[in-house]
Structure formats: structure tokens, C-alpha cells
TrEMBL record:
Gene3D superfamilies: Jelly Rolls (2.60.120.10). It comes from the Bacteria. This is Cyclic nucleotide-binding domain-containing protein. Residues 9-111 form the Cyclic nucleotide-binding domain. Pfam families: cNMP_binding. It comes from Streptomyces beihaiensis.
Amino acid sequence: MIATTSPRMTQTLPAVHRDQMMSLASEANYPQDTRLFEEGGHADRFWIVRSGTVALDMRVPGRRPVVVESLGFGELVGWSWLYSPYVWRLGAQAVTPLRTYVFDADAVRRLCDADPEFGRAVVHWVGGVIAHRLLASRTRLLDLYAPNGSGLPR
């Protein structure tokens, strides 16, 4: 069975590392329909949702972008900031008014380099998010475009 949400920072990072991460956070609010980032753009920040909903979408040739997952409270928006070449692999848009914590990717990467234990914890957390997103994207695209869908119960 597919988990309905991706691993959250509060569930994955030990308290000391959560505190380190949150020391780099700023609060940011966005109105409904705001584009946070575009697929192919430079990934220089990431967000954790405090309230509201974000849709992750993917370009499909000859069609409108397809929403592959919706994110809510406590979820990470954006993972491409952690891996060179730091290019967004999906797009993201606020579906509702959105309250977030926003993080400067370069500052977090510097902290990961300076504190290897922190860096391992962040890579473990983000890796879990990536694994979840890949499965969610695959399932969504199969549901949309495969003759028999994903075969998973809805």
C-alpha cells in the first residue's frame, strides 16, 4: 500500500537536527495560484508547508501539466535543491492560500557539509521523500495514461 504522505521532517530528523534546520527557516505566505517553481528552473530554496495545499505537476508533451501529487501540512516542497545540478524536476503551485517555512538551499547544503551527521540525516529524510514522490508520480501517470491504470486500488 502507498503511504498517503511523504516522510516528514518531524518524523525523520532527530530533534537536534530539526532544531538546526529550523534555525535556517523563514516564514513565507503565498496567495492561492502562486507558482513556487517551474520544472527546469534553478532550485535554490525549499519549503515546508505550515498550512494550505501545494500541487506538484509535471510537463507531459502535447498536454497540460499533470498534477502528480498534492502536499499539505508538514510536507517538504522541493528536493532538487539537494542534488547538483540543482534543477527542479517538477513544478509546484499553491492550490490554496499557503503558509510555509522557506529555506535557503545553499545555507542548508553548507550546514550539511559542515556537520556530516546533520548531512546524513537530511539526505536520509530527503531520500525518503524522493522515493515516495517517484512512486506517486509513476502511479498517477499510469492511472492517466496506461490502458489498465496502475492496478492499485483507489
